[in-house]
Amino acid sequence: MTHLNNLDVELAQELGDFTEDTLDVVFTPKECRTLQPSLPEEGVELDPHVKDCIQTYIREWLIVNQKHQGSSEVCGFKKTGSRKDFHKTLQKQTFESETLEYSEPRAQAGPRHLNVLCDVSGKGPLTACDFNLRSLQPDQRLENLLQHVSAEDFEKQNEEARRTNRQAELFALYPSVDEEDAVEIRPVPECPKEHLGNRILVKLLTLKFEIEIEPLFASIALYDVKERKKISENFHCDLNSDQFKGFLRAHTPSVAPSSQAKSAVFSVTYPSSDIYLVVKIEKVLQQGEIGDCAEPYMVIKESDGGKSKDKIEKLKLQAESFCQRLGKYRMPFAWAPISLTSFFNVSTLDREVTDVESMVGRSLAGERRTLSQSRRLSERALSLEENGTGSNLKATTMTINSFFKQEGDRLSDEDLFKFLADYKRSSSLQRRVKSIPGLLRLEISMAPEVINCCLTPELLPVRPFSENRTRPHKEILEFPIREVYVPHTVYRNLLYVYPQRLNFTNKLASARNITIKIQFMCGEDPSNAMPVIFGKSSGPEFLQEVYTAVTYHNKSPDFYEEVKIKLPAKLTVNHHLLFTFYHISCQQKQGASIESLLGYSWLPILLNDRLQTGSYCLPVALEKLPPNYSMHSAEKVPLQNPPIKWAEGHKGVFNIEVQAVSSVHTQDNHLEKFFTLCHSLESQVTFPIRVLDQKISETTLEHELKLSIICLNSSRLEPLVLFLHLVLDKLFQLSVQPMVIAGQTANFSQFAFESVVAIANSLHNSKDLSKDQHGRNCLLASYVHYVFRLPEPQKDLPKSGGSTALPDPRYHTYGRTSAAAVSSKLLQARVMSSSNPDLTGTHCAADEEVKSIMSSKIADRSCNRMSYYGSGNNDVPSATGAPRPTSKKHFHEELALQMVVSTGMVRETVFKYSWFFFELLVKSMAQYVHNMDKQDNFRRTRFSDRFKDDITTIVNVVTSEIAALLVKSQKENEQAEKINISLAFFLYDLLSLMDRSFVFNLIKHYCNQLSAKLNNLSMLISMRLEFLRILCSHEHYLNLNLFFMSADTAPASPCPSISSQNSSSCSSFQDQKIASMFDLTPEYRQQHFLTGLLFTELAAALDAEGEGMGKVQRKAVSAIHSLLSSHDLDPRCGKPEVKVKIAALYLPLVGIILDALPQLYDFTAADARSGKNRTSGSDEEQDGPSTINQNMALATAGNHFNLKTNGTMLSSLPYKQYNMLNAETTRNLMICFLWIMKNADQSLIRRWIADLPSMQLNRILDLLFICVSCFEYKGKPSSDKVSTQVLQKSRDVKARLEEALLRGEGARGEMMRRRVTGNDRVPSLSENLRWKKEQTHWRQANEKLDKTKAELDQEALISGNLATEANLIILDMQENIIQASSALDCKDSLLGGVLRVLVNSLSCDQSTTYLTHCFATLRALIAKFGDLLFEEEVEQCADLCQRVLHHCSSSMDITRSQACATLYLLMRFSFGATSNFARVKMQVTMSLASLAGKAQDFNEEHLRKSLRTILAYAEEDKGMQATPFPTQVEELLSNLNSILYDTVKMREFQEDPEMLMDLMYRIAKSYQTSPDLRLTWLQNMAEKHTKKKCYTEAAMCLVHAAALVAEYLSMLEDHSYLPVGSVSFQNISSNVLEESAVSEDTLSPDEDGVCSGRYFTESGLVGLLEQAAELFSTGGLYETVNEVYKLVIPILEAHRDFRKLTSTHDKLQKAFDNIISKGHKRMFGTYFRVGFYGSKFGDLDEQEFVYKEPAITKLPEISHRLEGFYSQCFGAEFVEVIKDSAPVDKTKLDPNKAYIQITFVEPYFDEYEMKDRVTYFEKNFNLRRFMYTTPFTLEGRPRGELHEQYRRNTVLTTMHAFPYIKTRISVIQKEEFVLTPIEVAIEDMKKKTLQLAVAINQEPPDAKMLQMVLQGSVGATVNQGPLEVAQVFLAEIPADPKLYRHHNKLRLCFKEFIMRCGEAVEKNRRLITADQREYQQELKKNYYKLKENLRPMIERKIPDLYKPIFTIESQKRDSFHRSSFRKYETQLSQGS
Predict the structure, then answer these.
(1) Measured between alpha carbons, how far is residue 301 from residues 186, 210, 212, 308, 320 in Å?
(2) How far apart are CA 764 and CA 776, in angstroms?
(3) What is the DSSP letter of 392?
(4) Each residue of 738-760: pLDDT tens digit?
């Protein structure tokens, strides 16, 4: 580092120098819940095992921390104070879009006045100026606009203005990386702590019965009915009044405060709806059965008074005497169940079960579990919030009004569960169980997190504890129904004794009222009873004895007592439980004692030194017990002299259960044995020792210990987890501790290691244990993080083997001269990783031993290679020599060695769970360094070479393991990803401990090795990326990268002068150097190692193609994004000079991004695609799919293609299949680009730009173009991406969550705490909420709604600032490009590019801040390149005019004044360039027309004001007064003003779509002479239609536009492939001919500015037609699509555009496919005739229109719409819809009302037309005639009898054919036909017959349809129909001969009808199923009946009809005549 200059050295030190270590070893005291830690009683010499346990429970945590962790890594936002208040430092950016929102809803109330379209004459819009501009006040003008300043000065001023007030940290404004892409973090594991389930607080308030005569005692406990298990200990509570307590004074020597608790905290780990709270009530023992004692409670009521009062007094006295005599005995009385179902709300349970289980275990496979771990179990399913009962601490009060009497013979728990199960089913027990009325009130609530004044189950006070409170709360111990896998962290040693049943039936008569006295004895003397039994309520804390409740006169009683005992820490063989049985005499007999002894029984506590628990059936001794009885168990007492007298001949008669809850007794044989043997090694013991039931001598000790180590893993999972910390500590102790047993050195390290591996394996594999998101077992993770510490060396010397010389401690395992030699051999050995890694070498003796030891794991006394190889010079100890134990081994070396030499399954497991061993290594290394004070040493010498070799081997092996797994299946891939992450974290940690170059080498090996082994690119890159991302998140990343070594920064000349830019200097070395700074060169990779690697991966990812690359690309980009983000927000990188250096480090990224240009997501296209209403959308966005598409991005620079940096031609590019990046990845890449551009040295950037080929410059401009759209401000509601990225939830829940997290340890907790103290970035809400994955119930479905207004405002503020800052950086870049390249010749193409970007930025929603700067830059451009602008960049000019005009109508004064000034300058310079600004004039006029038609938020008042301001500029501009300029300006402005007039009109009809379209149609018509403007308006109409989903009409507008263009093109040039004007379009629509009005005289195409738009070209024509085809396709008119493409194809063929031809034919195929597949299912429009009557309608009065509505619109729908609309206009009371379709008589209408008549009409065709209109489409296209029918009678009623029913058919003809460019067309002709009743009958019968014919011939046949039609024709119910018609019209021959023909026609109709009916009946017979036979019979019967009835009428003919036609000659053969007659009839029937 010597050659760095001073500044750099300072910077490096500031960023944290190399020399210091970054790992800190801290001891943090363990958090203790209780005031004093739970410890065993004092003054006892404890067993080593108990000592160890307690030591483990109370010692401090040892944690290794990263010193600067979080400063650069996460987001050190210390600079601006708390990140929470960061937004307060931001300026509010004003966006016009938001100022409008507030002022918009104004004139909605009240009926609106309908603006009437007056004067339909062709008064052109140009004369409509009813408004004088000069009457307005102009806006404020910009002062120095008209002064002449040099371009350079102007640019300088602009730049200074832009530099002020900028946001320093760009990333502070940008949402942080999405959590899926976030760099993996190791969640800080949760701190091990005591397990608490869901906690409920139960308070007992009152207990009362109908009469109060004696003290009663309550106890409560929880029971789980389904599991049939008591799930909590008992809580005893005394709710008696002082008077009753006084009854018992004699029996209560003292009352401890802890026994007066009335509230208990229960804990439930597995909530379910089967949990009951059972209250049991006891009373003092008295004479009589329970039933007798309960009797008074059921019959007497205190309220009765009188007699009952005396009774109560009597009972009271009686009770008092019993209390005095029998006060210490109890009897059962009553009980009551309380269901907690409502409390454990079932809905919460479904969710909770999985969640809770995962906590305690049962993690759902593959789910990320961090959240559930960090959230303490305590407030799981319970919070009442979820039950909808309010705040989660609000209590529910429960009242119980009746109790069940206890049944003396059914007291056991078994019976209780039966009762509860019944109760659950029917919520009342069987009749047999009596109930006692009473009242118990209790209050249940969620236990708050902190409860003041609470006691643990051992009665230790919990913090906070106030001494002065009398009644504490008690925590009640839970007995969970399933295992809870949480290691012990507190000392707990409790024993629960449950006497269950005693059987004395055959015993002497005296045993009736039996009680048992229970004592815990430490000897056999009665005085040895220990006070360790927990007392009940209102008594002492601890008792020496306790009595069970008595069941009166029951010889074999059941007991339900629970005796809770505090076990002494040191148990001996003398400790036992003693049970004494008594008979209690309830009656007072003179001189008799109360108790008479019945017998004894006992249970020794220890058996073989192990705690006895479980169920026992004990015998009862009837006499005094012999001495030393307690040494034996009661069942196996040896014969005594005299013999003991047993009840029932020594059979078991007393059932009892004993359970322990202990954190010192393992209750597992394997663990027990292991601990015992370990302790026998550590302390002086006398051999043989006894373990369980075997004796172990000193010689077998080693073998046994090894066995027990191997068997550890066979122990049950629960005890293993409970004692996990101690087990692992012991194993690690064994692995480094050389043991001397019986004079031999024993070595356990391999066994210990393998056992650890096995334990790790079973913990990871257990389904019941939770894992974090990296699949790491949470128990192990927290063990390594908090508990693990280097094993302490044992102080005492070896037990035997004499004094030994300690060897030289240099190499702690090998005592060889040359470690290198050994290690190389080791390496050879490792390479052959056989199951027997023997070392080949000279030291045969030793090696042989090694071999034998390794292969046979028998306790061989020789020295083991892994731990000891003699010491000193080359003296290899012979196998026989007494080996000398080595000095202390180092744990990290031993661990690394064991990892290297492991084989087989062990090796596989080690690498599978390598994270655990890596973390162990790192933690032990950190402690080693800490202890050795090596922090000052050079890192190189800290660790032995052999250790480094081992690490290298480990890394290599793990890498190859990863590669091997990746080739396999998906599951293995996931495994590989996890190992990969672990390895990355390991190297990350090593960077903080070891020599960096060593670690870098490891990284290099890793990368090379993976590349060599993997051929799947995406997987390879993905792996390496994941790996590098983690390393790069190192807090000294910048220093590790030597960022201050960047190439000499370019000399600081502010801007290269033109002279220095001549050709010779261009190729100078300096410039090449600059260019190479932006490329990823080999030198760069060498110098900046990690960044180089990262960039290489990014470039590879972007360049690659194939499956799954998208994800990889996203990962690569977000890695760089998060890195830059962390630098940007790192307070250490705050200084600009530091940032310049950092940006220099990232310059190659710019080259990479430019190369990836074609892959970037195209935001402009996306906006158009999403149909987003871009109010300001430029033509480009509306007409083409997008402005920048792939080819365009490549071909922006005119015709030459872009060059890739390496200079190859890109002509092949469009064919390369790129992997397109998605929007988010592109955004992230863009923000990185902008950051570099913002922070890099600007002069360097300019010099770089100056040397770039124009190709590359165009790429940069394209990039900026995309950037603009990418960072467009999206307005408040969806404010940026933040809202979707951040997890939303309602506020209170979020608060609860945060609180849970703050409490939770774990990464989340850490982070939230950091957040509260404040250095977090707001948008990310909290780092990356990883748990977004689990759909936690806080996540609301609708994320946007539940943010507070403040939050939304804050988000909008931040994203507004982001949009402004991003756009300003883009603007800076453009200025750099303009300045750097102003000397070059490629100005023109560049200028176009720059303009495109500026125009794009103007079309986005921008803040006023940005607009001010943007317009300034534009004005500078106009001043600098004015002439070029109007010659070359016609298109850009058009867009520019439109954008600037749009801003002229802005409501913000500041924007408006800027826009006016710019527009004026534009005109002025264009005039200067050509002395005539026709082109600008045309562009501005068209722009305004297009704005007027499209923009919703377009405000004409503001625009008028702007026009006035421009006029003012023209008048004040002294330099131009002499020219015609001012007058031309005025002319233009008045023209614009008149267009505005139309717009105002349109605004008024905004609500009436038809009227609006009529108006637009008229405006378009008035521009018939100005094709450009007509085209603009047609497009406006198309857009409006598309918005209303009228796709066909929109398409028609475009067809008309295309016809217009075709007319113009055919005038210009005569190409055979072009359509010949509008005539060619007739097949599409007959209406198009209107466009042929463009004739030579109205327009000469050469005139400047006319028809110069982009559409008046062949490609413009194709574009319009293609869009029309798309719309037709959307609208379902597929046949028309074909017609449109018929015009397009010749043009494409002429252009040889085969690509487009391919897609065109593809689309045609789709269209034809649709025609075939959809057939008759297609829906076309529905048509209605609408007539308007009444003067209120103005122009519309008495007008009739045909409206086209969407298919299947019903009459009521359109009626409702129109009525609703006009009611709003005129008021509902004035509007009336005429219900019928009869002609309207104007005179009968109320002149003050508006009438609307709506009739459904159908398309009408003449007979001849039907021949051409065959298909369904043809019958619905090109329609001009419609018909509707009106029924009437001559009397004036609409309907009458058949013989008087007339019908009027009305045919309407419209002005144009449907579909047209609007949806209503006026009616121009009306014809009416009246049908007489008989004609009506003929029509109806024809219709019926036709229906039948259709139903018969339908393919495939439809039985249902056929039956429906048949039923309507012959069904019995309706045969009145046809029959009645026949009877009315055919019964008699009409009198009027004129009707003969009709009569005959009707007769023939009937003839055909009955024939069809016959066919139908026959067809139906073939179609029906068996079950319809009867129905068929019925139909047939009806058919014949009808036929019979009709026959006479059908067959009778009118002779007169045939007279005039021909005469019949008798001699002809009949058959002939018959046949000809038949012909005649058929002709008639056809003709009719």
Answers:
(1) 69, 5, 10, 7, 20
(2) 7
(3) T
(4) 777 777 778 888 999 999 999 99
